[in-house]
């Protein structure tokens, strides 16, 4: 039985683990060359001034507070020009459809952005689904840290019911977790790159409505 589940395709293990534990770690979701390309793209965009300081809260309640989070973000267009980004968006779209068919999650849309955590930044313990972001059902993070090693920091601490799971931000790894779960980005000692997103139970163009 154990053997069988080890051999099951990642998508099936993802469904089981998400249902049972609320999260799934999907290694090698994309190839290392794709990781490199996305990282280069993020770096170029950053140099061109397309990233902005991430904040907390939405619209009139938006504020930047470095004691809570220190990352810079750039929202990703749903129809991106870059072919690697385009195929990642397609894979997330397929994953959303598959989750709907198997888990009846009623996912309607998703939103996603690049995130860069400069050296010595973090994101304090929080949840992604709250009053102002009530439509976030599943969070996903694709890590783009090609040279990551122990001691570089920037791990994701995920708070499960009775334990804390420390997840390394390894290149090509996709982390999925329920958006109401508490989590935290630990202090990054080296710049940390990722694509973060949320699958939503409402069409994004309608999320300004209650
Ligand atoms: O980058 C991560 O590991 C998690 C980021 C996060 O929690 C967020 O952007 O809400
Ligand atoms: Fe988060």
Quick synopsis:
By secondary structure, this protein is α+β, with helices and mostly antiparallel strands.
What would you note in describing this structure?
- This protein has helices at about 1-5, 10-20, 30-45, 85-105, and strands spanning about 25, 50-55, 70-75, 110-115, 120-125, 135-145, 155-160, 165, 175-180, 185-190, 190-200.
- The protein has about 210 residues and is an alpha+beta fold.
- The chain has one domain: q2cbj1_9rhob like domain (Jelly Rolls).
- The chain has a seven-stranded antiparallel β-sheet. A four-stranded antiparallel β-sheet has the order 5-10-7-8, with no helix packed on it.
- The N and C termini lie far apart (about 45 Å).
- The model has no long low-confidence stretch (mean pLDDT about 90).
- Bound molecules: 2-oxoglutaric acid (AKG) and fe (ii) ion.
- Fe (ii) ion (FE2) binds near residues 126, 128, 139 and 183.
């Amino acid at each position: 039985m154990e053997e069988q589940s080890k051999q099951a395709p990642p998508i099936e293990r993802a469904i089981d683990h998400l249902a049972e534990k609320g999260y799934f770690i999907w290694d090698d979701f994309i190839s290392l060359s794709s990781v490199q390309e996305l990282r280069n793209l993020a770096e170029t965009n950053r140099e061109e001034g397309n990233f902005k300081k991430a904040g907390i809260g939405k619209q009139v309640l938006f504020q930047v507070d470095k004691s809570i989070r220190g990352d810079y973000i750039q929202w990703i267009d749903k129809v991106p020009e870059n072919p690697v980004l385009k195929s990642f968006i397609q894979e997330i779209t397929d994953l959303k459809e598959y989750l709907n068919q198997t888990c009846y999650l009623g996912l309607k849309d998703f939103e996603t952005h690049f995130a860069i955590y400069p050296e010595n930044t973090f994101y304090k313990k929080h949840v992604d689904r709250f009053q102002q972001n009530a439509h976030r059902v599943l969070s996903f993070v694709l890590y783009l840290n090609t040279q990551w090693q122990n001691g570089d920091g920037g791990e994701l601490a995920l708070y499960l019911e009775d334990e804390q799971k420390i997840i390394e931000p390894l290149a090509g790894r996709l982390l999925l977790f329920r958006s109401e779960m508490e989590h935290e980005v630990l202090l990054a000692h080296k710049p940390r790159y990722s694509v973060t997103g949320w699958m939503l139970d409402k069409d994004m163009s309608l999320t300004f409505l209650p």
